[in-house]
Task: structure prediction
Amino acid sequence: MKNKKSLIGVVFLSIVLISLIAVSCAATVSQEEYDKVKAELVAAQAQVETLQSDLEAAQSRIELLEQKMAQAKAQAEIISGLFVPALTGEFNEMTTSESTHFFLEWRDQVEASGDTLLKDKFQALIDAEFADEGMMDFFLYLFENLPKTLE
Result:
């Protein structure tokens, strides 16, 4: 029995040693292969950083364009809401108090545009009691500024 246990122990030990030798003899990655893969990793990481930077720049550009579109939309709404009644002569049929009330309703949109020159021109239009010259100056500014906003 002792011999049997010794024999089993020797066989077990032999199997373990053979396994360790087999594992240690397994093919390893050459230094050249390792260097190549490492260089590819560095290049991929650099590309990821470049793409991340490009993405951030594109997102900033999108935000800027969205702001410009919002400004242009506000300007177009002002043009539409005020210029059409001016062209159709609707303002000529309004009393001074009606036209003042009408323009005061639009003041919030003009204020929301964030354009200080537009706000000044709008206030000058109201102060001049909607004189034709003030009206032309206000609308001319809007028409000239709209394409600049979209640049």
Remarks:
- The chain has a mean pLDDT of 81.
- Residues 32-149 form one domain.
- The chain has one domain: 32-149.
